[in-house]
Amino acid sequence: MTDVSTHRPLLVSTDGGAGPYIMLPVDQLPHVQTLLDENRIRYWVDEDAISLNGKPAITVINLGRMGDAQSVQRLLDGKP
Fold it and tell me: Is 5 within a domain?
């Protein structure tokens, strides 16, 4: 799946101590939530979205410390 604002693949990030997460444009949130829900992936979405320099607002989907970053990345890549 491609980020609509950067035209690069959406990536599951694993830096930090809170567990894997996905940063994505707010406009793509419903589509990614549907994908995660259909595959029974647990997640939560940050309450705040950030927009800098007039760019589209970005939000974060958190997968939690037990989140399987590799499995979610495969889903985002269209390789279940």
Answer: no
